[in-house]
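pls read this protein:
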Amino acid sequence: MNTLSRRLLNDYQREFPLVSKPFDQIAARLDTREDILKHYARLYHLGLVSRIGPVFRPNTVGVSTLAAAQVAEEDLDAVAKQISSFAEVNHNYEREHELNLWFVVTAPDWPHLEAVIRRIEEATGVRVLVLPLVREFHIDLGFPLERARAPRPSIGAVPDRLRAPCVEPKDPVASSLIRALQCGLPLVEQPYAAVGKQVGIGEPRTIEMIRQWIDSGVIKRFGVVVRHHELGYRANAMVVFDLPDAEVERYGTRLARLPWVTLCYQRPRRLPEWPYNLFCMIHGKERSCVEALIARAIDDVGLRAFPHDVLFSVRRFKQRGARYRASEDPPPAQVRAYG
């Protein structure tokens, strides 16, 4: 990967320019005569970029939940394919556990989401364990290639005002803009003008609304969303802990501050199948490296005394950005195996 590609993938994972011609501004900042728009198009073509656009904070423009199911090995491929066919499902993975299929469902509101879960259970004949977010400590999923140029954002428990949807689902302008942005900006010279035309609000108001959502915390980051597996981060572990509920915030905040923890949040127990209430994700290029980081995290944070489990990803059945509003849905990504 050349220096320019690395800069484009690394430097603009957040704070992508909110100006009429962002690709021209990036070229000026990097002091290059390269056609930045064409360069990003090549990175898309190589599968290194998922999209350029917003990462919405959970439960601000809609609702979402992590879900799990125990599926017989001989049925796993067929059940995973059925679940991936739902437009509301944006991630779907096989993990090393009795609960071996893990997926994320997003929807405009809870009645819609609950209806999707029921339809999945009816279609597959499996019972779905629903694990909605209780408290966020760190959700970012940026993958800095040059840490000096991509500082880690501030970390801590999410304020109460951001634990419920902040954007009215029935607001037609907001809904149209979310629908237009959720798949990413179009790769054109003036992407905000193109989005504004699609929504019917024009370029200035499009940029203004995006900036307001960033300032209010509705959008966690606005920029390049890379495909971490294709960048070599193929060892992916979900580490879960069983803590006293009163201790979750204390340990969750500590865990989230570790630079190699990419996600950290509280979710509910579902006894007797699922006793864990603190989750974190650690990504790396080799399984042995991730295992070493897990051991270090447990020791550094003081979690050795608490029961825990490690669920490595085995296969990726589907991975794409969340869809909070109905839109044309591309076919699921090709299944990827992890070494």
About this structure: Confidence is low (pLDDT under 50) at residues 147-164, 328-339. The chain is about 30% helix and 25% strand. The longest strand covers residues 308-319.
